Amino acid sequence: MPKSTANTGGVTAPAITPTPSTSAPGARGWRDYALLLALACCWSSTYPLTKIGLGSIPPVTFISARSLVAAAFLLVVLRIRGIRIPTDIKAWKLFAFQQTINSTIPFLVITWAQLYVPASNTVVLASTTPIFAFLITWAITRHEPASLLKLVGAILGLGGTVAIIGLDALSGFGKEIVAEIAILLATVSFACATIFGLRLSDYDPMVVAAGSLLFGGSVLLPVALIVDHPWTLHPTPQALVATVVMGIFSSAFGLMLFYMCLTRLGTLTTNAQGYLRIPIGVALSVILLGETLPSNLALGLVLVMAGVAAMTVPTDAVKRWLRKR
To answer: Which UniProt keywords apply (predicted)?
Structure first.
């Protein structure tokens, strides 16, 4: 099927509508799964670094600052590589919409909801993204195979998340129903972003990450100036370091790896990293924040790894294995 393209300074703009032939991932190798693990490591650092940063920096200022730090870092790297950011309206519309549904709105919604919902409940609710991605893919877009095995994997991963966080977290559900629904809507937004992100697969992943982060940080900057008056803040050195590290590691590298995984592995497999982030995030919280290990960590890890395996093993490979049996 022909694609509509635009001149983007050496980078070809993507087709407006992804098709099975353009969005389905190709043959997978260990490097692809290494990218998935690297993405999980990058985004796992979000949990402890956010907790450190928000100790003395308000949420809007924190999100804007980390986005602009990440964008500045990527723009410097792109300049060194000799790649220019696209200047056409079509590209920036794609960047703007992707950033809005993948970061700006869901991050603000979840940050607000966490004022009322405990962190453990938030983690469980936010871990429903792979399930929503499966349902949207199966019922609406059908841009890649949505097998029953992947749904089973999503459910196993969610069960592992609940086991790691603790069953006691489930007892708190329903007390702040509006905030909890808001978190679920944010996870639906994340799921939609992984699917919409396929429209950006013809761009260099670093270009997409830089453009998206630049847009997101710039949009929130005026809000931060009006609401938070950042010049009056007194952030701790730890909060400043957390902002910079999160901007470069979690946002810049993380978003770049995210778009690489979307192109190589597809949306459903890429969403599997959401479950990998849970045990890695717990380990980082223990190391950086001195938190204690969950009592059901072993059971949770087994369920999480089983879920991730079910979501990442190609359907063709499973069929070949069954035929051999």
So the answer is: Membrane, Transmembrane, Transmembrane helix
